[in-house]
């Protein structure tokens, strides 16, 4: 089986690029962030502080996650409810980052993530795919961009959706998430030794897509 790991900080364009690349290459796209977001959403809905390791761990037996592909798009179900849209809120991204620091949460998701790569060609994106989940991935990409470039893109995205976006607030959130994701004790975000680093700060979406596609095809 071929597996492509794409890791990097939030807002680097990973999911949009990964989804398009998977469709282009005919691989199954696995968005592991959506799994952490669903657990974050569940904690928030239960009134549990996502930073409270013991309280979040106690919720895990009550959580059933399912991934289904509908017309080529990944949908995630939390206890039977399609939460694919609900998990995209900014606050849930922050909650996801907090719950993802707990070892019990990571252990809860690891087998599912590895299982998905056993029987099909996958393109999986996240923070620790090349370092922990699929250390033997066929190709590993570390996709990054400066915090400023990511904040700028995020603001434009939010405004397109008709939501208010203050650049300074968005930038501060991105920096806080980077800090949480890079400095946690377990499976922190870092570039795998054998990953190819791609920085998209200075290039647009189409250029990033072309560069990633070429890089992947050169290595499989
Ligand atoms: O990629 P994303 O923004 O949807 O991810 C949400 C959070 O989940 C992110 O801040 C850190 C966490 N995460 C993780 O720890 N490991 C992964 N493989 C994917 C996401």
TrEMBL record:
<dbReference type="GO" id="GO:0036431">
    <property type="term" value="F:dCMP kinase activity"/>
</dbReference>
<dbReference type="InterPro" id="IPR011994">
    <property type="entry name" value="Cytidylate_kinase_dom"/>
</dbReference>
<feature type="binding site">
    <location>
        <begin position="8"/>
        <end position="16"/>
    </location>
    <ligand>
        <name>ATP</name>
    </ligand>
</feature>
<dbReference type="Pfam" id="PF02224">
    <property type="entry name" value="Cytidylate_kin"/>
</dbReference>
<keyword id="KW-0808">Transferase</keyword>
<keyword id="KW-0547">Nucleotide-binding</keyword>
<protein>
    <recommendedName>
        <fullName>Cytidylate kinase</fullName>
        <ecNumber>2.7.4.25</ecNumber>
    </recommendedName>
</protein>
<feature type="domain" description="Cytidylate kinase">
    <location>
        <begin position="4"/>
        <end position="207"/>
    </location>
</feature>
<dbReference type="GO" id="GO:0015949">
    <property type="term" value="P:nucleobase-containing small molecule interconversion"/>
</dbReference>
<dbReference type="GO" id="GO:0005524">
    <property type="term" value="F:ATP binding"/>
</dbReference>
<dbReference type="GO" id="GO:0005829">
    <property type="term" value="C:cytosol"/>
</dbReference>
<keyword id="KW-0418">Kinase</keyword>
<dbReference type="GO" id="GO:0006220">
    <property type="term" value="P:pyrimidine nucleotide metabolic process"/>
</dbReference>
<comment type="similarity">
    <text>Belongs to the cytidylate kinase family. Type 1 subfamily.</text>
</comment>
<keyword id="KW-0963">Cytoplasm</keyword>
<dbReference type="InterPro" id="IPR003136">
    <property type="entry name" value="Cytidylate_kin"/>
</dbReference>
<dbReference type="InterPro" id="IPR027417">
    <property type="entry name" value="P-loop_NTPase"/>
</dbReference>
<keyword id="KW-0067">ATP-binding</keyword>
């Amino acid at each position: 089986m071929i597996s492509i790991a794409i890791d990097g900080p939030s807002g680097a364009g990973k999911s949009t690029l990964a989804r398009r690349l998977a469709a282009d290459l005919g691989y199954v796209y696995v968005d592991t962030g959506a799994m952490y977001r669903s657990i974050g959403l569940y904690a928030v809905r239960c009134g549990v502080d996502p930073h409270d390791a013991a309280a979040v761990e106690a919720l895990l037996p009550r959580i059933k996650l399912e991934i289904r592909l509908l017309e080529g798009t990944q949908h995630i179900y939390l206890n039977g409810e399609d939460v694919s849209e609900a998990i995209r809120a900014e606050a849930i991204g922050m909650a996801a980052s907090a719950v993802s620091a707990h070892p019990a949460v990571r252990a809860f998701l690891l087998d599912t993530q590895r299982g998905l790569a056993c029987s099909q060609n996958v393109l999986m994106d996240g923070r620790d795919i090349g370092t922990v989940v699929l250390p033997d991935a066929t190709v590993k990409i570390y996709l990054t961009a400066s915090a400023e470039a990511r904040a700028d893109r995020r603001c434009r995205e939010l405004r397109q959706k008709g939501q208010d976006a203050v650049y300074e607030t968005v930038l501060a959130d991105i920096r806080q998430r980077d800090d949480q994701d890079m400095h946690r004790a377990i499976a922190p975000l870092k570039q795998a030794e054998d990953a190819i680093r791609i920085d998209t700060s200075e290039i647009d979406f189409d250029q990033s897509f072309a560069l990633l596609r070429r890089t992947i095809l050169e290595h499989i």
